[in-house]
Automatic annotation (TrEMBL):
Organism: Falsigemmobacter faecalis
Coiled-coil positions: none
GO terms for MF: endonuclease activity
Source taxon at top rank: Bacteria
InterPro entries: P-loop_NTPase, TerL_ATPase, TerL_nuclease, Terminase_largesu-like
Protein name as catalogued: Terminase
Residues annotated as domain Terminase large subunit-like endonuclease: 259-543
Domain Terminase large subunit-like ATPase: 78-251
Length: 553
């Protein structure tokens, strides 16, 4: 068989020639395959039809074990055959080993991406000619990792051939006497990853991975294997400034050709972000198993629910249209926020009128001071963020809560105070510094936890303005903030801590269309965003009064 006639290539051709509905990034993945058939040998790669067919034929030994498909063979659909056949079919000319070592598969929920991961997991344990191969089902929680592992055990038991080759007697691992291999679960909250030597790793629901420790340990532990596979599967996430968001961005860069990474395979089933969600073609772009795993009328029913109940729409777009959102109920899109990241020199603003928002932390939260300086039609933000190291030390806190804290501290975006609480005297000193370099007009603050600092600032004659956190106090400032972002009037210097906090905000709205940020329902810390909203709100209110006075005169 010629490579162009293989099922992998036939799917690619069907996508490129319009016979198969697919989004742009899938189309680019298909074009990459077809282009590499023509030019890959120049870079030392070739497509091995027999190797690609071997993994596709192996899948026929596996049966579905749950749902209406239970007991039926796991017949790979063309889009699945393209992914599996690509990863196992592309080889290096120099040694015949696999080309792709890292893979990323982003598909909407309920399209069988977890189930079809059983194919490469079981195959590499049995037929990859690897001594004592280790396979791991990994996730952030034991329960999530156990979903794939439990499916694997059921599949092995249901197959007469596989049950002869693999032993499932131990409920915690699957072993192979034939190869000396094993398959186990691995999670952030479970057993240790120390001492592992993986040949195949399935990383499930990567959008939920909040710290890098497990990911780095797992991937770095594969270095001793000749042709390991990192198989990352996920639905779109809610925070592009994350581990998964970075892989998603790398995927797009590779597929568009702006980054060369011949060892990386990506399949990202996304419709356009501004798509018509009522178009069945859009549904198919995110759900390649539409019409196979579930019916169009069932998908339409879920869409109708999301249209009727606005609060369900963000999750519908993320889970069922495979589109990234920022926050459980998206407030400000990351791409729009990033328009204000153009660098500026704070020194150019010294001496100008400024409005300050101060959000003091509880024991473990962030404390933030945001200075808003209107200048030449724009509002420049300077954000200072403080974090207590915690009782077990800063490094342990960062690894548990958010590993980026370390990088942000080293780059000067985050100031860490020793102990369990932020140093209030340091906050007061920072306020004094701000007053020396800016013409401070107001300091807006939430009175919670501010008794000592407010008393000290009043002694020092700071112009304090108490600022509540309910709808009455926050609605207008938050709307002013949104308007400034939408009109590209907000400049934040690319501060990653502030950007992260803005992406975390859950936007509450009452029947009168008043809005406020909801700390309890937000998916992460939002203190810098709250301080920024107060500062911008006060600055914009003052600007409105100034214009009114000018009109009156």
């Amino acid at each position: 068989m010629e490579p162009i006639d293989h099922p992998v290539s036939r799917y690619a051709l069907d996508v490129i020639e319009g016979r198969e509905v697919a989004g742009e990034l899938v189309r680019l993945a298909c074009q990459r395959h077809l282009t590499d058939l023509e030019t890959g040998r120049d870079r030392g790669y070739y497509f091995d039809c027999k190797a690609a067919s071997r993994i596709l034929n192996f899948s026929k030994l596996i049966q579905h074990t749950t749902g209406p498909m239970g007991g039926k063979p796991l017949a790979l659909e063309p889009w699945q055959a393209f992914r599996h056949g690509s990863v196992f079919g592309w080889k290096r000319t120099e040694d015949g080993l696999r080309r792709f070592r890292a893979t990323y598969h982003q598909v909407a929920k309920k399209n069988g991406k977890t189930t079809d991961t059983a194919v490469p997991m079981l195959f590499t344990s049995l037929f990859d000619r690897e001594a004592a191969p280790q396979g791991y089902c990994t996730a952030t929680t034991r329960d999530q990792a156990g979903l794939l592992f439990g499916e694997l055990r059921r599949m092995v038991k249901a197959s007469p051939v596989l049950s002869e080759l693999l032993n499932t007697a131990n409920k915690h691992e699957i072993t192979s006497g034939h190869t000396g291999g094993l398959i186990k679960c691995l999670s952030r909250d479970g057993n240790s990853a120390d001492g592992i030597n993986p040949h195949f790793v399935a990383r499930d629901e990567v959008h939920r991975w909040t710290d890098r420790e497990l990911a780095e340990v797992v991937v770095n532990s594969m270095i001793a294997r000749a042709q390991p596979i990192d198989w990352a599967i996920t639905t779109a996430g809610a925070d592009t400034a994350s581990i998964c968001g970075e892989i998603r961005e790398h995927s797009e860069n590779v597929l568009r050709g702006s980054v060369t990474d011949d060892r990386f395979f990506a399949y990202v089933a996304e419709p356009p972000h501004d798509c018509d969600i009522n178009d069945p073609r859009v549904w198919k772009m995110a759900n390649p198993n539409l019409g196979v795993a579930f019916k169009e009328e069932d998908f339409r029913a879920k869409l109708d629910e999301a249209l009727a109940i606005a609060g369900r729409m963000p999750n519908f777009r993320r889970l069922h249209l495979n589109l990234w959102t920022e926050g459980a109920q998206s407030w400000i899109e990351r791409s729009v926020w990033d328009l204000g990241a153009t660098p500026f020199d704070p020194a150019m603003l010294y001496g100008r009128k400024a409005w300050v928002g101060l959000d003091l932390s509880k024991t473990t939260d962030l404390t933030s001071i945001v200075v808003a300086i209107p200048y030449e039609g724009q509002i420049f933000l300077i954000c200072y963020t403080f974090l207590p190291s915690g009782p077990k030390g800063f490094i342990q806190r960062a690894q548990k809560e958010k590993r980026e804290y370390i990088q942000w501290r080293d780059q000067g975006w985050l100031e860490v105070h020793g102990g369990g609480v932020v140093d209030e005297s340091a906050i007061i000193e920072r306020m004094e510094m701000i007053r020396k370099i800016f013409d401070v007009q107001e300091v807006a603050y939430d009175r919670w936890g501010m008794k000592y600092i407010a008393k000290e600032l009043l002694k020092r004659r700071f112009p304090l303005i108490e600022h509540g956190q309910g709808y009455a106090s926050m609605s207008s400032p938050m709307k002013r903030f949104e308007e400034a972002v939408a009109k590209s009037r907000l400049r934040h210097n690319g501060n990653p801590v502030l950007g992260w906090a803005v992406g975390n905000v859950h936007r509450d709205e009452d029947a009168a269309e008043n809005i406020k940020p909801n700390k309890a329902r937000s998916k992460g810390r939002i203190d810098p965003a709250v301080a920024a909203i107060m500062a911008v709100g006060r600055a914009e209110a003052a600007e409105g009064k100034r214009k009114a006075r000018e009109i009156g005169t």
